[in-house]
Automatic annotation (TrEMBL):
Tetramer of two alpha and two beta chains. Forms complex with the iron protein (nitrogenase component 2). Keywords: ATP-binding, Iron, Iron-sulfur, Metal-binding, Nitrogen fixation, Nucleotide-binding, Oxidoreductase. This is Nitrogenase molybdenum-iron protein beta chain. It catalyses: N2 + 8 reduced [2Fe-2S]-[ferredoxin] + 16 ATP + 16 H2O = H2 + 8 oxidized [2Fe-2S]-[ferredoxin] + 2 NH4(+) + 16 ADP + 16 phosphate + 6 H(+). The keyword Oxidoreductase applies. GO terms for cellular component: molybdenum-iron nitrogenase complex. This molybdenum-iron protein is part of the nitrogenase complex that catalyzes the key enzymatic reactions in nitrogen fixation. Binds 1 [8Fe-7S] cluster per heterodimer. One of its GO terms (molecular function) is ATP binding. Belongs to the NifD/NifK/NifE/NifN family.
Length: 460
């Protein structure tokens, strides 16, 4: 009983969050920056912040995460961190030689009012940025938003800095990935490859945070979107942006700056959201959907049909990021499951509207909460009031799952006590099959372990 003090009775709380369903903005900014080839993330704040951001990513991806810090002291915390950042930029280029430094702010540097744009401009005029090298910057004050907001802000900064419109239109589609695993980014490229569409995927953390063991340390692994690819985005035919919370700013920036129109759709999780993704790609690239993709869809639908009895009527509690939660709820509803409780600490005005659109006349079945006060303590209280058959979310749910004896599907960020998420996608039709496999394993295992002896089935 690790959470023995969680009570069933809810007390109205306005100024207290217990076990928030989110983490810190710069973690997301760092993750987005790592998806650009030759880019070194830089945390403008104290060493403690940077250590936390790096370790959060390293623990999830089981890969070393390189990043630099402005190393604030008491002096810089009072008088400003400009001198630290200027010195850092010079040192980083001379010692670590990245193509790009991606600077994000922290709570401390935002609170004292450091202006990253002005400091980076000064670094340029002071000659601290070598010819052909780049420094981009994004604001990531962690006392608002979440890791997803930080990801969004850095992705927007990357696109704004590099994308350029020329007279030479390109037969290619920009694909903006919301916060997903390297395996998902690899899957997105596999799907667009099957469809024969040339795409620029940004960011792309495949071959950065899922690198093969070669015995050789690479400060800048071979993966990541390259600078020429980023520049070329301004000449693309269209942008397909996956996940409002992660990608909207970048999609709008490409439209405003380079007149590349965009489709902003959900992450392709489950049947319907993947259908929308495939149709958006087909339209953007002016290609038809190949039979091999139809076959993948057919296999997913076949699995749903074969195993429907195990999904039907099962109550589920979910927490995590809105871009994952919304299509995941839609998928669960398609399986005739009941997403009973949904919590996301990443704020966003359209969360309620999207949930209502997904649930339709079933909206009364679900309790949901979004924003800074949405926390896992309340989710646990709801579960105590009326139980669920499955819990879905990041590693932090394991205490609830253990106390309440609920099968627990790890999904989202961070997952620090299991592996697999970096290697096996959950996006697309094949990702849908993976989600179903994992859910079925848990539900059937639970049934095997808890049903009466005379009800143990050999064939399921
Ligand atoms: S102080 Fe702010 S930026 Fe630093 S680790 Fe904490 S939440 Fe993140």
């Amino acid at each position: 009983m690790l959470l023995r003090h969680t009570t069933e009775k809810e007390i109205d709380r306005k100024a207290l969050t217990v076990n928030p369903a989110k983490t810190c903005q710069p973690v997301g900014a760092m993750y987005a920056a790592l998806g650009v080839h030759g880019c070194l993330p830089h945390s403008h704040g104290s060493q403690g912040c940077c250590s936390y951001h790096r370790s959060a990513l390293t623990r999830h991806y089981k890969e070393p995460v390189m990043a630099a810090t402005s190393s604030f002291t008491e002096g810089s915390s009072v008088f400003g961190g400009q001198a630290n950042l200027l010195q850092a930029i010079g040192t980083i280029f001379s010692v670590y030689d990245p193509e790009i430094i991606a600077v994000h702010s922290t709570c401390l540097s935002e609170t004292i009012g450091d202006d990253l744009g002005q400091i980076v401009a000064k670094a340029k005029t002071d000659g601290k940025i070598p010819e052909g090298k780049h420094v981009i910057q994004a604001p990531t004050p962690s006392y608002v938003g979440s890791h997803v907001t930080g990801y969004h802000n850095m992705l927007e900064a990357i696109v704004k800095y590099f994308a350029m419109k020329t007279d030479e239109a390109k037969r290619q589609v920009n694909l903006l990935a919301g916060w997903v695993e390297p395996s998902d980014m690899r899957e997105l490229k596999r799907i667009t490859g099957m469809m024969g569409i040339k795409t620029v995927l940004v960011p792309d953390t495949s071959d950065v945070l899922d690198t093969p063991m070669t015995g050789k340390f690479e400060m800048y692994p071979k993966g990541g979107t390259t600078i020429p690819e980023l520049v070329s985005m301004g000449d693309s035919m269209k942008t397909v942006a996956l996940g409002e919370w992660g990608t909207k700013g970048a999609a709008v920036a490409l439209d405003n700056q380079c007149k590349v129109p965009f489709d902003l759709i959900d992450l392709p999780i489950g049947v319907k959201a993947t259908d929308r993704f495939i149709m958006a790609l087909s339209k953007a690239g002016a290609v038809s959907v190949p039979e091999a993709i139809n076959d993948e869809r057919g296999r997913l639908v076949d699995l749903i049909t074969d195993m429907h009895q195990y999904f039907y009527g099962k109550r589920v509690a979910l927490y995590g990021d809105p871009d994952q939660l919304i299509p995941m709820c839609e998928f669960l509803l398609d399986l005739d499951m009941i997403p009973a409780y949904v919590v996301s600490g990443t704020p966003g005005k359209s969360f309620d509207k999207k949930m209502k659109a997904v649930f339709g006349d079933k909206i009364d079945q679900v309790k949901f909460k979004n924003g800074a006060n949405a926390d896992m303590f309340q989710l646990h209280q709801w579960i105590k009031q009326e139980g669920v058959d499955l819990l879905i979310g990041n590693t932090y749910g394991k205490y609830i799952a253990r106390d309440e004896k609920i099968p627990f599907l790890r999904m989202g960020f961070p997952i620090v006590d299991r592996v697999g998420h970096s290697y096996f996608p959950t996006l697309g039709y094949m990702g849908g099959i993976r989600i179903l496999e994992k859910m079925l394993d848990l539900l059937m295992q639970h049934q095997d372990e808890t049903c009466d002896e005379e009800k143990v089935e050999l064939v399921m």
